[in-house]
Every structure is written in structure tokens, then in C-alpha cells.
Design a protein that fits this description.
Elements (H helix, E strand, L loop, with lengths): L7 H19 L10 H18 L8 H16 L1 H10 L5 H24 L8 H16 L11 H18 L7 H26 L2
Helix pairs in contact: 1-2, 2-3, 2-4, 2-5, 3-5, 3-7, 4-5, 5-6, 5-7, 6-8, 7-8
Length: 206
Amino acid sequence: MPLTLSEWYPVRAAGLFALIMTLVVARRDRHPFPLFGPANLTTTLRALLVALTAAFIGEDVTESAAASAVSLGGGAAALDALDGWLARRTKMASAFGARFDMEIDALLILVLAILVWRHGKAGSWVLASGLLRYGFVAAGWALPWMRAPLPPSVRGKAICAVQIVALLLALAPFVRAPVSAVVAAVALGVLSYSFLIDTIWLWKRR
């Protein structure tokens, strides 16, 4: 079935991308280098791909729409390793760039979780995959000890990548329910475990 998009698709994509970049520009003073840098430009491209993926929320639920969303989301995921490499290569690694990258990852997970649910590949519980990160941040508003910085973690980065790949797989047209739900559930369990470990670490050092 050919892909047919509504006239609102580009509006949603442009609106979300504009919102993301408005937030980035508002925090530009936290970037320690005079140039934005190739790493942040790559993350900006990832943000565009995520916005294009998110714009499928609200479109008709079809296999062609799912396949297109998987392609765009997969492109955003594939570029994830490049921005970090570029930051180190150009000696422009910064907390600003790391946060930018992390927030795009979190948004991609939320977008994919919504699409997996909308396409009937898993129940509404799959939305927890995308909401865990934002729930963690919200908890920090009420509990100051939850706002303490976490140390760099290979585990966290690996589980984030696993979560994205699992949701892409669950959304792919060739993966049918209930297999898609099982894939999403296993990934959610692993992600929940990661957040639990981080919460315990922060609690012990409160």
C-alpha cells in the first residue's frame, strides 16, 4: 500500500522541530564553545528525523506508515553513535551536547512507544517506556536528592540503545502481535531495571 500523508503531517513535523530548536537555542549560553560544532549539528539532524517520525502520530495506521516511521527512527538511532564520536574527535565534548543528545534519545523512545501502541503492537502499558525518563525528571522536582548528577554509565547507554531497537522492531510491519508486545515488554523490563539502579544509587548518596 503506498504511503499517503495528510496535509497536517508537515505541519506537525515542522512544529515539533521548531519547538526542539527553540529550547536548544534558549540554552545556547550553556554551550562552552563559540561554534555549535559538528556533533551538535548531527544531533540537530537526529532531532529533525525524530520530528518527522513523531509526525506519524495522528496519521492513518497503515503498514506503509509504520515502515516509514521505522526508517526515519532507525536513521535517528543510527546517527546516535556519530555525534558522540564527533564531539570527542573535535575536542568539543560538553555537558550541553550530552544533554542535547540524551533528550533526543528520550523523545525518540517516547515517540516510538506511542506509535507501537497506536499501531496495535502492544497495549497502553508500552507508553511507560517513553514516560519513565520524564517521570524520573519530575520526581527530581519533589525530591532534591533525585536531581543529583549520575555518573557516566555504559549500562545506561547500552540499555537506551536496546530500548530504541526493540521499539523499532516492535513497530516494524513484519513483526506481528503478540511477538511485538513481548519484545516491547522485555525492553521495558530492562529499562525499568536501569532506572531502578539509578534511583537506588541516588538514594544511597542523598
